[in-house]
Amino acid sequence: MAKRLLTLPELGLLIYMLRDKPEVSRLLALLPVAEVEGIADGGMGSLRFVNSNPYRRLGQAVATLRYPDADGVPVLATLYLDTDGVLYELDSWKTDGSPLQRIPAF
User: Fold this and answer.
1) Which domain holds residue 9?
2) 32 located within any domain
3) Is residue 103 in a domain?
4) For residue 5, what pLDDT is reported?
5) Gyration radius (Cα) of the chain, Å
6) Which of 100, 54, 59 is nearest to 76 (CA)?
7) Where are the strands (E) in 18-85, listed by range?
8) Is residue 88 part of a domain?
9) pLDDT digit string (tens) for 20-70?
């Protein structure tokens, strides 16, 4: 998939998810220029952060949020770091498996 910058709704979601986490100023500073690629997930909104390290591995979850989609179906969003503590992936999962309609304003 093509690389791109975060959309404003994606950026707002990530800032909201990270707002109360300790020592996140480094991650927040990178968000406006972070490049991402969509993940083939049936349109649920998952993203992988672009990085030049070909040996990256999934690390720990740093934040999780549950919110309703426009149709009322719950969405579970989890933000992961890689094993080096760098933004790795935003995993979005809509509980009924349908495509995400919109990210609400946070």
Assistant:
1) 4-94
2) yes
3) no
4) 97
5) 13
6) 100
7) 35-38, 47-49, 58-68, 74-82
8) yes
9) 988 789 999 999 999 999 998 888 889 999 999 999 999 999 999 999 999
Which pLDDT does position 99 carry in this prediction? 96
Residue with the two structure tokens 């990270």: 18
Q: Using CA atoms, how far apart are residues 65 and 77, in angstroms rounded to an integer?
A: 5
Quote the percentage of the chain above a pLDDT of 90: 87
Count how many domains the chain has: 1
Q: Which two tokens stand for residue 6?
A: 């975060």
Beta bridge partners of 47: 38, 90
Specify which residues 82 forms β-bridges with.
Answer: 58
Whether this prediction's pTM lies above 0.70 is answered by: yes
Q: What is the mean pLDDT of residues 84-96?
A: 95
**27 domain-assigned:** yes
Cβ-contact 5, 34 below 8 angstroms:
yes
pLDDT for res 57: 96
The C-alpha atoms of residue 83 and residue 73 are separated, in whole angstroms, by 32
Distances (CA, A) of 81 to 36, 74, 88: 14, 23, 5
43 torsion bin: left (phi>0), alpha (psi -120 to 50), beta (else)? left
